[in-house]
Amino acid sequence: MRQLTYGSVRIGLYETLKEQTKANGIPNSAPVLGLLAGISGFTGAIFGNASDIGNIRMQNDGSLPAHLRRNYRHIFDAWVQIKRQEGWKALTQGLWPNAFRCGMMTSCQLASYDSFRDLLVATTGISSDHAGLQFLASCMAALVATTICSPIDVIKTQLMGSSGATGIIQVIRNLTVSEGIRWIFRGWTPSFARLGPQTVATLVLLEQHKRVFRSLREVNIDKISQ
């Protein structure tokens, strides 16, 4: 559900914005790509926030004492219970930190992927449609995204996992007091283990899909011209 909302919106919007900038003669430099990706991720997070809350709460449920567990059966049950027990506003819990995190993640992930891919093409001379080149560029993008977004992920998880009203500053203060500065990279390895394959699968499949789509469009154009 999260990927159907957040994932589809951010990728679709990013590709659309790139096409619009090209059509208006704006070069897709690294800063421009970063801005476009950031806007796309921020927007996607607004659509996916409710799914994110249910996802995090269900993942964290097993670590809670039995009397504090929410026992959501699925994402729709989670939304119903959250609305009944906490009100509609609870589905926006952590929205702005999440939107900022998703903007940063998308900027680091998609924009850095495009930049790494173009750099590898210029350096090696290999076609940008080559799956191996896309694989390497997506791995590098996952490394950048995981490192930069790790502390934001920790804060987002703390905010969304709580049923009470907790501020960002309070979360940072509590984490620093209990763990020191090490909390910034808490969970980096499992995050990369998740984000690395997810980034590679998403971007390589997206690129191959675009290649097939371009080929089919060219065939249709040729048929129409004939």
CATH architecture: Alpha/alpha barrel
Whole-number total of structural domains: 1
Number of strands: 0
> SSE string, helix = H, strand = E?
HHHHHHH
- Terminal Cα span: 44 Å
Q: What is the CATH topology? A: Mitochondrial carrier fold
Tally of separate helices = 7
Query: What is the percentage of strand-forming residues?
Result: under 5%
Q: State the shape.
A: globular
Question: Main sheet, how many strands, which sense, barrel?
Answer: none
CATH homologous superfamily descriptor: Mitochondrial carrier domain
Classified by CATH, the class is: Mainly Alpha
* Cα radius of gyration in angstroms: 20 Å
Q: How much helix, percentage-wise, in residues?
A: over 70%
Q: Write down the overall mean pLDDT.
A: 86
Content-based structural category: mainly alpha
Which stretches are low in confidence, meaning pLDDT under 50 for 5 or more residues running?
none
